[in-house]
Structures are given as C-alpha cells and as structure tokens.
Design a protein that fits this description.
Strands 3-2-1-4-5 form a 5-stranded mixed β-sheet, with helices on both faces. The chain is built from 12 helices and 5 strands. Strand 1 (113-122) and strand 2 form a beta hairpin. Helix 4 (40-52) packs across helix 5 (58-69) and helix 5 (58-69) packs across helix 6 (75-85). By secondary structure, the protein is an alpha/beta fold. The radius of gyration is 26 Å and the shape is elongated.
C-alpha cells in the first residue's frame, strides 16, 4: 500500500484508492489485521461432538455446543474451529433427480405420514443383513426397525406391526409411503396394511425424493451409527441398532425441528395441542 501513501501526499485518500483500484475497506483492514483466537474449551467440545456426529455442519454444531455448554456460542467461532481442525463443512446435497411434478401429502401432525424403506448392513460372517426402518415424516421419529439376515416380506410386515404397537396411531388417518420394492409390493404386505386400516401409498418409479425423509434418515444411520463399526456378525449389529434408535430419538438434534430431538419436539407438540 506504499503507492497509496505516495499519492495521498498530493490528492485525497478516496481518489488515491480509486486510481489504483483498491477499496477503502481493504485499505483499512490491511493496516490493522485482526488476530482472532478460538476458545480451547469450545474447541474441545466441538471435537468431542464431531467424533460422534460427523454429519453435523456449523449450524447444527453451534446448536449442540450451545446446549452442552448452557450458554450462547457464536457460529463464526464454530466455523473457525472447523477450519482449524481441517474439517470440511458438509454442503447440502444437490438434488439432480428430475422432479415428478406430483403433489404429495405433507403432514401437519404426528402419525399422519410414515415412510419406510430397507437399508443394508454388512455383518461379517452373516454377510449382508437387512434393516427395515419406519420413520414419522412430521416428528422425524425413528419409530421402529426390524433387522433380519434375509429380506422376506414377513420382516417388512413385522416392522409395520411393531411400529403401530409402539406409536399407537389412529391407523384410519395414517398414510404409509413406500417404494415399489418386492417386499412392499407383495400381496401379503398389502393385505396386512389394509387389515390394519392404513392407506398404502407408493412413490413413483425413479423418484426416491418422494420418500425423502427415510432416504435422509438412512444416510445419517450409515454415517453416524453403522459405518464407524465393523460388525463380526448379525448380533453385534442388532445391539448397535437398538442403542442407535434411542440416541437418534432422544439425543440427536434436528435442524428441521428447531434443533430439538424428536422426543423433545413430540413432548412440546403434545403440550401445545392438548
């Protein structure tokens, strides 16, 4: 910035900066650069949470650190800690799938819309095992999972029957949304759903975004609960899944729920809708 000082002897600062194409903000900032320190206590908390919640970005991390430290934490400081640790800030996934244009039901209360799907878990000597999950689209609660070494239609039915027994919805007001997989398209499954009084809704072919809540849930399930482990067998995986369901509903905060856990969100909703 020596040139600016030389020019400034003869003309005003504004004109000097204009001549060399430098903004006034950059000029003043270069004169007194700030050295910003990060709080080591906050950094330790961020590292601890990050090991357990690798999918957290800075927004959710800020909310979680605020909860744990019981005091407001600035998101800019969280971003600085992320950069200092060399962590990549997760970007929202771009949806490159062509939208179907179909108008889908959006729930405004719990137990109006459930989404269900299968994901796969490698279990060592037992090979690939199958986890059928049921998620409430409104509260984001992981209602039930049925885990099996095979993927028969009976396990798909079992997951819904147990979800109903757990959540106790009014089945006549409940929609169950699934893909077109053979387990969900089987006559036995469709008859079981009809017997329960649940309306069965299929997504269109090649439109997984129509089952977006359970798709997103499966990404989190794999990254935070399944992939950190190397299971020797089916039994080990089932123990982790049982603990994961409790953690997901009771401990893990959700941005879509105002950074509450599903259990906290449901408790608040029930208090305000008595």
């Amino acid at each position: 910035m020596t040139a600016v000082k030389q020019l400034n002897k003869h003309i005003s600062l504004n004109k000097s900066l204009l001549l060399i194409g430098v903004s006034k903000t950059k000029w003043y900032y270069s004169k007194s650069p700030r050295i910003i320190q990060t709080d080591p206590v906050i950094a330790d908390v961020v590292q601890k949470i990050g090991k357990q919640r690798p999918t957290y970005g800075t927004h959710r991390m800020t909310a979680q650190v605020t909860r744990e430290m019981n005091k407001p934490v600035n998101r800019k400081q969280i971003r600085r800690i992320f950069h200092k640790l060399g962590w990549i800030i997760p970007a929202k996934a771009k949806n490159d799938i062509i939208k179907s244009g179909r108008t889908l039901f959006k729930p405004d209360a719990p137990n109006q819309l459930w989404q269900t799907d299968i994901t796969y878990v490698w279990c060592g000597v037992d090979g690939w095992c199958y986890c059928f999950n049921v998620v409430d689209a409104f509260s984001r609660r992981w209602i039930w999972h049925s885990f099996d070494v095979a993927a028969p239609k009976d396990t798909a039915i079992d997951s819904i029957v147990n979800a109903v027994a757990t959540a106790k919805p009014d089945c006549t007001k409940l929609i169950l949304r699934t893909d077109n997989g053979s387990q969900y398209n089987s006559r036995d499954f469709r008859q079981a759903i009809a017997f329960l009084g649940i309306r069965h809704e299929f997504i269109w072919h090649h439109t997984p975004e129509q089952n977006g809540h359970v798709e997103s849930f499966h990404r989190t399930l794999k990254k935070e609960y399944i992939w950190p482990h190397e299971f020797a067998n089916y039994q080990q995986a089932e123990v982790v899944l049982q603990k994961a369901r409790f953690d997901y509903n009771s401990e893990r905060i959700h941005s879509a729920l105002g950074y509450l856990t599903p259990d906290e969100f449901m408790e608040l909703w029930e208090m305000t809708h008595k």
